[in-house]
């Protein structure tokens, strides 16, 4: 049979167990703590490494962002420069278009001026007193100026102008009409003798002229003013004989009766 432990032995064993148990527990706790500390250190080290890597990554990203910002700034500056260049080019193009338009306008003005000068130098077709003929621009202008003076009843100026015209353009298509109106200007100045010579030269040179009957009537009036009744009657008879159906002939008949 197994012997039953005595109370004293049991107490000794219990004390021994009590003495040994805390020591084992303390040993276990130290190992765990060290392991935990090592694990913690490893994690801390790993965390520090991760933070270092993260910081490096952040710095790298920050550098990339800054580089990108600089690139964007440079690109924006380039865009602004391009806009400025385009604006200047548009301005230059608009100026060139304005200059071109001005050149074209001047060319048109020059061409028109040349055409006008050429037209002034070219003969012009004129119809006067039932006759059509060509005259030079200066010739037409001289005749028109003389006639404008005559219509203003400035006979003292019109007569010299018409005389000058006939000397300058003796073969002009205006010559017959100019001679007729010269006689009228001289009549207006009461230069009856000069007027008689002028009217006679007109009728002799242009007997078929539409104003020939009027010229003979005016000639007769000049003769009557000079009290040359005989010559006046003779001229009126010539008028009635050569141009019987003209209005001047009708007036001549009445004038002839008055001179009897």
Protein described:
With 260 residues, this protein is mainly alpha-helical. The chain has two domains: 1-94; 124-258, Tetratricopeptide repeat domain (Serine Threonine Protein Phosphatase 5, Tetratricopeptide repeat, Alpha Horseshoe). The protein has eight helices and two strands; from the N terminus they run αββααααααα. The protein has a two-stranded antiparallel ribbon. α2 runs antiparallel to α3 (155-168). The longest helix is centred in the N-terminal third of the chain and has 115 residues, at 7-121.
Identify low-pLDDT runs: 14-18
Ends distance: 216 Å
- Strands ordered across the widest β-sheet: 1-2
Question: What is the CATH topology assignment of the largest domain?
Answer: Serine Threonine Protein Phosphatase 5, Tetratricopeptide repeat
CATH superfamily label of the largest domain: Tetratricopeptide repeat domain
Describe the biggest sheet? 2 strands, antiparallel
